[in-house]
Every structure is written in C-alpha cells, then in structure tokens.
User: Which sequence fits this backbone?
C-alpha cells in the first residue's frame, strides 16, 4: 500500500481539521527565500530596538568586584557574615558546610565615573569611560543557584531544558531583516574553559527548528557542512534543492508534519549562507583604527574581541539576535588573579562595541546586554588569606548592564543592601528582565506564545513585569 493510500485509509474528522490548519503551511513554501515575520506587524507594541547583542559572561562575574561597591565590606573585611543578614537563604553544597563565612571586601579600587557618578572597578577602565551610555541594573535576582539551571532559566525562562531560548523566541516572533542570514547567530570565545556550554542554550526547544541559533565558528569554515562537497557545483546544488523542495512539498501535503517546512527552510537558508557568511566573516576590509578600538585581540579570530567586531557586522546585516558566550567567570578560588584575566579579555571590546554602534548611528535601535547568570557571595568560599579568596554562587542579587535599544543611558536601577547580600529596592526578576527585553523589541511578552502539548507557552511563562523605569 502506498503512503498516500495508507494515510487516507485512516483519515478521520480530526485528521481533516488538523491537516486543514497544517496545510496552510504549504503556502509558506513559496516564501522560504524570504521568511515571514510572524508577529512584527500583528498589533504589537512600538519597537524601540530592532536587534539584540547579548554579551553573555558564563560562570557569573563578581558584581562586588566590578560594579557594586560596598564600603561596609571593606570595613568588616574578615569578620563573620551576621546571621541576621544571611537568614535562611539557600547555599550551594560547596560552602553550606563551612563553619565560618568571613566577609570579603574587594581588593580592587573603585572610582566614580560619568555625569551620574557610576562606581566602576579599576578592572574595567574602558567600561568606565562609557558609563553615560549604560543602564546598570544592580538588583537582578534569580531562582537558580547552580550554573546549568541558572543559565537555562535566564536564556529560556525555565530551569528545565527543553524550552526555546530567547533568541529562538525572537526569531519566531520577528524573523530576520536579512533573508540571507539566520535571525539568531551564536559566537563563542575559542579555547576558553569553565562551565560547559550546551547547544540547548541557543536551541529552539519546541518551536520549529529553523529558529535555533546558528553557531558561527572561527577559522576557514565558520558554519559546519555549509560548503558544497568536491565536485558539486552551485548550479547542481540549486537543482538538487529545487527537486527536493518539490518532493518535500508533496510529503507535507500528504503527512502534514510542520517540521518538513522547517527542514526545507533550513536547506534554503544554508544555500543562501554559502555566499553571505563568507562575506560577513571577512573582516579584512576593517580599517586599522577599528581594530585599535576593539583591542589587539580583535585581529585574532575566535577571541571575544574578534567576536564583538563580528557582532557589529552581523547587526549591520540585519541579524536579529546575536549572542556571544565567554566562559571562565566561575571563580570559587583564586579570584583576585583570575578575574583580572577575564576583564582584560572582555572590557575593551565590550566598550568598543557600544562606542562603535553609537558612532554608526546604530546604538539607538540596538540593545546591548552584558552579564552572567547570577552573582557571587560577599563572603569567602573556603579560606580567606591576605592575597587570595573565592566567592560562591549567589542568586539573591547580581548586576548586568544594558546600552541603547530604548534604555535610559547613564542610570542605575535598583540597589542592594550595605552587605551586598540582598536587594534593598526595585528588584528585577529574570522574567521581568525577559519581559523588558521583549517590550523594547515591540513584543508584549504575554502575547508571544506557542501551543505545545495542550497549553500555550511563553518565554516568561506565567509571570513577569516590564521594568519601565529603565526605558527611555
């Protein structure tokens, strides 16, 4: 029995209704060369930002040594964390068994910068010069205390794997402004160790698979398996895809599986990327003064600085969501030395990206985000010595900064207590942060939904409030 006859022999009323809705997707086959923007013109909010560049610092930078200066910790350095401050907060298994929790003041000098007088550590001299362009959020908090669930929570709205990532949601909701590049691109710093990065951090979850992030690597082949095999010409590849599209259109009409459409969209995108990716990855036309602004590392493919430069080029080409991952911030020990390395690798390029976007007139509609998955403790993990200490995970408060994309420049939102242990005012939950990012892009976070397994899911799931105080 043929597939068609076999299928029709079990064709029920439910099948008819299901296929009727799925069959509408067949019409999308003619638009694979220019994917539809599903929500961009369907009564959404006015958009302040067109795109996002998310500089994700994997491992959780210590806010107390970078941006959230606490004079009381300097004064009480080495003294015990008062039980009244610690309360019943959850600790990780790495420090819960400690008999002593000595407070640690930062060994680094802080100074006030910019018109607003933002306090920034000496470790971030380049960031200090652009504070009037930044919106610091010092009252972020999360529900997860370990890296994997915390990263998953921040990037997908759930601590459990399987949900779509933020970039996938935006690809689904807004599409791309460039039909020859993915809406969602991921860049990772090469040769960095630390907490592992899992591809689900840029996965599509239960959304159609064409919305997953496309990882661009450094080197000759930035996207794996993109080039034609030896002996296969572009004309031959085009012919193969045309024939394959006909066969898969027939299969979709028969079976009605929406993943057939997703697979076809990916084939077509890969074909177009054979030309567009080498063009955008070729930075040989960048002038010397641009490399000097981003730092010497920007000449070395795969470094954080080089990826920041690529992020600007991808933004210029209309990529909707560009996410950079930089590992190595998980400093349970040896923090004084290790954090210097991390800052040296990221500070200049992060600041240069903001300045570069501004000078090109792109910062006003590009949202730049810098931060990790949670904060670090105000007490030392393990033994505190004169020249060494570590800080454990701390979900109760952490700092990130945003620039451009409709955020207020030169402000600080929220405040932590004098010990840097809890939030004193204007706390921002992870779902609040996600709702705000979507709002800046013109999306009501309660309306961007996808039905899966009988209910409608969203990035912020069942709660989240837009933080209007940080919006221009």
Assistant:
């Amino acid at each position: 029995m043929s597939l068609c006859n076999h299928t029709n022999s079990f064709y029920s009323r439910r099948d008819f209704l299901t296929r009727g809705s799925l069959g509408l997707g067949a019409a999308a086959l003619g638009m694979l060369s220019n994917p539809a923007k599903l929500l961009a013109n369907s009564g959404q909010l006015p958009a302040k930002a067109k795109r996002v560049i998310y500089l994700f610092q994997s491992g959780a930078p210590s806010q107390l040594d970078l941006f959230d200066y606490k004079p009381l910790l300097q004064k009480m350095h080495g003294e015990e964390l008062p039980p009244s401050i610690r309360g019943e907060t959850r600790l990780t298994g790495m420090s819960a068994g400690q008999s002593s929790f000595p407070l640690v003041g930062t060994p680094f000098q802080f100074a006030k910068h910019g018109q607003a007088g933002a306090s920034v550590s000496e470790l971030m001299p380049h960031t200090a010069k652009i504070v009037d362009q930044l919106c610091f959020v010092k009252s972020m908090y999360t529900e997860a205390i370990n890296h994997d669930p915390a990263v998953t929570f921040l990037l997908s709205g759930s601590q459990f794997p399987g949900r779509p990532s933020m970039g996938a949601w935006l690809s689904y909701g807004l599409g791309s402004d460039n039909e020859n590049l993915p809406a969602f691109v991921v860049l990772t710093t090469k040769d960095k160790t630390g907490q592992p990065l899992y591809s689900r951090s840029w996965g599509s979850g239960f959304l159609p698979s064409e919305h997953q992030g496309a990882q661009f690597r450094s080197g000759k082949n930035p996207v794996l398996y993109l080039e034609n095999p030896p002996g296969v010409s572009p004309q031959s590849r085009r012919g193969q895809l045309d024939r394959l599209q006909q066969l898969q259109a027939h299969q979709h009409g028969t079976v009605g599986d929406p993943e057939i459409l997703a697979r076809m969209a990916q084939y077509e995108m890969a074909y177009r990327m054979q030309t567009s990716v080498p063009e955008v990855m070729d930075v040989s036309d960048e002038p010397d003064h641009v490399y000097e602004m981003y730092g010497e590392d920007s000449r070395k493919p795969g470094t954080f600085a080089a990826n920041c430069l690529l992020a600007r080029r991808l933004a210029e080409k209309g990529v909707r969501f560009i996410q950079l991952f930089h590992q190595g911030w998980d400093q349970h020990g040896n923090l004084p030395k290790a954090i210097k390395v991390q800052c040296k690798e990221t500070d200049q390029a992060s600041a240069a990206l903001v300045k570069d976007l501004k000078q090109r007139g792109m910062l006003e509609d590009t949202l730049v985000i810098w931060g990790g998955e949670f904060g670090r403790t105000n007490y030392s993990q393990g033994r505190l010595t004169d020249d060494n200490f570590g800080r454990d995970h701390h979900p109760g408060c952490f700092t990130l900064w945003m620039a451009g994309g409709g955020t207020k420049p030169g402000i600080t939102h929220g405040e932590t207590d004098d010990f840097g242990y809890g939030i004193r005012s204007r706390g921002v939950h992870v779902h609040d942060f996600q709702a705000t990012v979507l709002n800046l892009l013109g999306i009501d976070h309660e309306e961007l939904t996808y039905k899966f397994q009988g209910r409608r899911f969203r990035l912020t799931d069942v709660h989240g409030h837009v933080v209007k105080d940080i919006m221009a």
In short: Residues 103 and 379 are 4 Å apart (CA to CA). The first helix runs from residue 3 to 8.
